[in-house]
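Rotation project, supervised by the postdoc (A.L.). Task for the rotation student: set up a whole-complex structure prediction and record inputs and outputs verbatim in this book. Inputs entered:
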Amino acid sequence: MAAPVAAPVAASGATPREERVRAALSGRPLVLVGLMGAGKSTVGRRLAMRLGLPFRDADTEIEEAAGMSIPDIFEIYGEAHFRDGERRVIDRLLREGRIVLATGGGAFMDDATRRAVAASGVSVWLKADLDTLMRRVRKRSTRPLLQNADPEGTMRALMERRYPVYATADVVVESHDGAHEEVVEAVVAALEAHLATETGDAP
Ligand code: S3P
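Outputs recorded:
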């Protein structure tokens, strides 16, 4: 028996809701923010596919621009140097307009980056609890900030410091440990509601 179809699909493959979100973005970048392990890259890649937009990963772009890995940038040049590069790369990516952009966890803490995102894009905070974040980040050892004796304590401190700032994003979506597609679905729904308030289409 054929699987039931969830929603009518437009010629592009996007559902009407996804078409509405893409149209309401009207060329602005969609910027995912949140802590390490929140799922910004995985959700961002799927979201981009659903919306028919190019996906960019700021961390990958920084590594390409520097010609070295993030752990190497931290080790050789230090975090301040990394943050300078991060600010410049994100500024360049924001100018591309129609993209879904996954940012590194610290990017939105930079005042200039936050202002640039607010001026040109729509921001989405993928909010996750400590257990979810720790379960995910334990799988990789590529995050310099967590290479210490107490990564969980570090994560907790980062949550305290960063969550009030992430909370200023345009849209907040819980990123739980279930299927990524569910989070993608929740982001599309939250975006639709937010973008409707901009145009006065909200019920
Ligand atoms: C960082 C998060 C990392 C990366 C760098 C610093 C942070 O990106 O940019 O290690 O300050 O939280 P992810 O959030 O994609 O892991």
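Student's summary: The longest helix spans residues 180-199.
Supervisor addendum: Residues 36, 40, 59, 70, 104-106, 143-145 surround shikimate-3-phosphate (CB under 6 Å).
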